[in-house]
């Protein structure tokens, strides 16, 4: 059994017991989260899609803040002496899927 869930504008394929990193979700470690935007649900071959899906995915926050790899944006114009360097690290939350109901 698996489901496709929309979290913060991104789609994730999830199964029970799976641990995954999603864009930052508000909450502390150990909090329970309900994900209501289920786009697709597969129950052993019986597929439900769109508005027909009446399911929720329950998850637990394992780690509230995980930083991604550093991404550097470097701009330069040759022969002008112009250089600009920006960097950022995206914040993620690690969750564990407990049940799909």
User: What is the global morphology?
Assistant: elongated
Order of helix and strand elements from N to C terminus: EEEEEEEE
How much helix, percentage-wise, in residues? under 10%
Strand order of the largest sheet: 2-1-5-6
Biggest sheet descriptor: 4 strands, antiparallel
The total count of helices amounts to 0
Given helix and strand content, the structural type is mainly beta
Number of strands: 8
N/C terminus separation: 10 Å
Radius of gyration: 19 Å
Low-confidence stretches are: none
**Overall pLDDT level:** 96
Beta-sheet strand percentage? over 45%
User: How many distinct domains?
Assistant: 1
Task: State the main characteristics.
101 residues, mainly beta, 4-stranded antiparallel beta sheet
